[in-house]
Structures are given as structure tokens and as C-alpha cells.
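Hi V.,

You were right to ask for the full record rather than a summary. Here it is.
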Amino acid sequence: MIVGCLLLSAFLLYSWHLRQNGATTLLERTVLAMAAPFLTGVDSVTGFVSGGWDHYLYLVDTQEQNRGLLSDNAQLRNEILGLEEIRLANDRLRELLDFKEQTQTSTLPAQVIAEDFTLLLRTVLIDKGRACLLYTS
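Predicted structure:
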């Protein structure tokens, strides 16, 4: 700690003297030559810490971006599943329309909304009724 303070004061004195005279003396050049390895080490350590901090901040930003992309990805997957269900329903409706065009009797397309499979009765509830002129026989 004391060596660091002495070096700092020597560099401040050197900087002030250089502004006044514009040239270095033999003593100043000797002190600079002796302090060069220490200053190189300090510069390397500060560069390493600074670079590590920059990489850490980059990783934090990348992690936040990754969370956002994962959220977007999950939302898009849900949307794809919904669209797949719509596609399947459209395929079923197209089959029903094709079936209707092939049959000669009058038909009424309906969707099954409930099923009851018991041993005695097998009941299906559809979404059409008397309002559509549908009666049981």
C-alpha cells in the first residue's frame, strides 16, 4: 500500500515536472524504467477485471434476451397448437361437406358435444335439435 502511494506521488510529480520542462531527467527515466513491470502488471489486472465485467454484463443482457425469446417461443408454440386444432376442425368440416355432396338424402351437419357410454345405452348429444327441424325416430 505504501509502495503504491509512493509510486502515485512520484508519477504525479513526474507529470507536473514534464509539463513544466517538457523533458525528462535521468532520475525520472530510471524510476519509470523500474516501475514499468509493476505498471504493466497493474494494467493487465485492471484490463482483466474490466474485460470480465464487460463479459458479465454481456451475459446478463444475453440472459434477459434469452428469457424474452423463450417466452415468445412458448407463445408461438401455443398459437401453433391452436392453429393445428383449427386445421383439424376444418378438415373434418370439409369431409362433412364432401359427404353431404355425395349423399342423395337430406342431411344436417352437427357436432357431437357430449357422449355417454354405458353398458345399456350409448347416447350421443349433438348441437342440433327441434329448432333445426331434427326429431328422433
